Amino acid sequence: MTTETAINTAPHFQDADAFYECLLDAHQGLSREQSELLNARLILILANQIGDSAVLQACIAGAREAPAS
After folding, report:
1. Residue 40 Cα distances to 1, 37, 45, 46, angstroms
2. Largest CA-CA distance found in the chain, in angstroms, rounded
3. Choosing a second label site near 27 at 20 to 30 A (CA), which of 1, 9, 20, 34?
4. Structural contact between residues 27 and 35, judged by C-beta atoms closer than 8 angstroms
5. Which long-range contacts (CB under 8 A, 24 or more apart) does 57-62 make?
6. Taking 60 as the threshold, does the pLDDT of residue 2 lie above it?
7. How far from 12 is each of 8, 9, 16, 19, 33, CA to CA, in Å?
8. Where do the structural domains in the chain lie, given as residue ranges?
9. pLDDT for the residue numbered 41
10. Global confidence as pTM
């Protein structure tokens, strides 16, 4: 028996613009490889903050299913 984990896809940022600006600033001056490594490290740090394996798996599935922009 499987239980589907619901994830919150509604905007939930306190200040989305500030986060986006901070993220862009973090990538300034990095090569493509360095930028990809930064993204990978950030994903792992954020995943650690979530911690719940079922939620993380649901987020991965949700990201794969999301329409391309």
Report:
1. 32, 5, 9, 10
2. 49
3. 9
4. yes
5. 57/5, 58/4, 58/5, 58/6, 58/7, 59/7, 62/7, 62/9
6. no
7. 8, 8, 8, 12, 30
8. 32-69
9. 98
10. 0.78
Query: What is the DSSP code string of 16-46?
Result: HHHHHHHHHHHHTT--HHHHHHHHHHHHHHH
Pair of tokens at residue 63? 């990201």
Q: How far is CA 14 from the centre of its chain?
A: 16
9-67 pLDDT tens trace: 888 889 999 999 999 999 999 999 999 999 999 999 999 999 999 999 999 999 998 77
pLDDT the model gives residue 13: 86
